[in-house]
Amino acid sequence: MNKQISYRLDELFVEDVSVSEIADSLRTPFYVYSRSTIKNNFVRFKKSMEGLDGIICYSVKANSNLSVLETIAQLGGGADVVSLGEYQRALRAGIDQKKIVFSGVGKQDFEIAETLKSSLLQYNVESVSELESINKIAVSLNRQAPIALRVNPDIDAGTHENISTGKADNKFGIPITTAKDIYQYASKLEKIKIVGVDVHIGSQISDLNAFRQTFENLAKLINELKNTSIHIENIDIGGGLGIKYADNDAEPDLQKYCTLVRQILGNLNCSIIFEPGRYIVGNSGILVTKVLYKKKSQNKNFLITDAGMNDFSRAALYGATHRLIPISKKNSGETEVYDVVGPVCETTDTFLKNHIIERPEEGDFLAFLDVGAYGAVLSSEYNTRPLVPEIMVFNKRYEMVRSRPSYEEIFDKEFIPDWK
Ligand SMILES: *Cc1c(COP(=O)(O)O)cnc(C)c1O
Q1: Contact (CB, 8 A) for 130 and 107
Q2: Is the distance from CB of 391 to CB of 22 less than 8 angstroms?
Q3: 57 is catalytic
Q4: In the structure, which protein residues have their CB atom closer than 6 angstroms to any atom of ligand 1?
Q5: Pocket-testing residue among 80, 126, 245, ligand 1, by greatest number of atoms within 8 A of Cβ
Q6: What domains lie within the chain, and their CATH numbers?
Q7: What DSSP designation does 307 have?
Q8: d(CA 334, CA 358)
Q9: String of b and e for 134-163 (b: at least 16 CB within 10 Å)?
């Protein structure tokens, strides 16, 4: 367990703040993030890159709260964004535009035009059509567009199929076998400036062999490009390094990962762009929820929580399981087995099956662990449940970093037309 999120005596603390204290003043469910954890993860990552000419472009989609991005900005980090919205968040949080890469398989004209007006680090281009779009818009604005091609190395990252992106059948990237030709083509486009090559093979990856093969393919491509006098400055190796969600999960080794990068890509005279998301924020967050009801059916016990799949959807989307612990331990010695479910009207609104937990009572507060990545960002107002609030803790202080909208605020965005 993350040291910043742990029990002191029988009370769960995030840094120096007791979670009960927050739960007494704010209606559950809500997320709590540890700012020090994010900082520590970032600094550890940076240290592991030692000896490399590298930059961390934090993957904003993992957790895009402005307070998280501000934490990254304070540490000198850059950003990997996949929409104009994320780009503007990054700027608002103080991230240097020159450290922003724009990824994504479906960039729109208005997004390209708006970001071309400033000078971001590079566009990671995913198709020939996109390349042509960027060039056309760049010509019309008389700007140069720095680009990298996102190549698809056709490698199985050995992760869940819904978060695998580097296989030939996935929608992502340009087949590495055709990349050379497309680089040639790109080099002839008037306002395209080739600066890099990019890859991202998936998420929650623990098998370093997938990375090794990918890096080897990249090195080969870069050398081949050199022979055709296309010079690559930046190697963007994407994100994807996994974290430990369960006690028996394999923990991918950051040091070994960086050693691979150094060995395979370190001597190519390029700067390396890292795009970690989950690794930086995953273990920094908890989701605090209340037990609404205990319910017995014929052969199951259900624990119904006030958090639902609209607040936290990793279980419904990826079949993910997260540790669930009480925020106040009772030390009763009694445990019970539950299916832990939310209140949303969907059968997939199930967080855990056959979960063993210290005998809970209705009204008790529990916390899902390691929900800092792909948690709040995936929340919705399904069932007209207001967007889940977010709190950030830093040492002894805690602050609201996203508030829960009122019903009025929700309804104010909708209109009943006057059809008469
Ligand atoms: C999602 C994503 C990342 C971050 O992935 P993690 O598994 O959170 O590290 C990085 N780069 C790109 C292009 C992505 O789509």
Answers
A1: yes
A2: yes
A3: no
A4: 59, 61-62, 80, 103, 200, 203, 238-241, 275-279, 373
A5: 80
A6: 5-33+282-411 (2.40.37.10), 104-274 (3.20.20.10)
A7: -
A8: 6
A9: bbebbeeeebebbbbbbbbbbbbbebeeeb
Q: pTM of the entire structure?
A: 0.96
Active-site pick, 57, 258, 270, 345: 345
Q: Which residue has the tokens 């600066």?
A: 195
> What is the distance in A from the centroid of ligand 1 to the CA of 402?
23
d(CA 197, CA 285): 33
Atom of ligand 1 nearest to the CA of 238: 11
For residue 228, report the distance from its CA to the centre of ligand 1, in Å: 30
Distance 178 CA to ligand 1 centre (A): 23
DSSP 225: H
Sign, CA dihedral 46-51-56-62, equals negative
Query: What is the pLDDT tens value at each position of the chain, 420 positions in all?
Result: 789 999 999 999 999 999 999 999 999 999 999 999 999 999 999 999 999 999 999 999 999 999 999 999 999 999 999 999 999 999 999 999 999 999 999 999 999 999 999 999 999 999 999 999 999 999 999 999 999 999 999 888 777 777 777 777 788 899 999 999 999 999 999 999 999 999 999 999 998 999 999 999 999 999 999 999 899 999 999 999 999 999 888 878 999 999 999 999 999 999 999 999 999 999 999 999 999 999 998 889 999 999 999 999 999 999 999 999 999 999 999 999 999 999 999 989 999 999 999 999 999 999 999 999 999 999 999 999 999 999 999 999 999 999 999 999 999 999 999 999
Q: Which atom of ligand 1 is nearest to the CA of 278?
A: 8
- Pocket mutation for ligand 1, best pick of 55, 56, 59 (most atoms within 8 Å of C-beta): 59
Residue 107 CA to ligand 1 center (angstroms) comes to 16
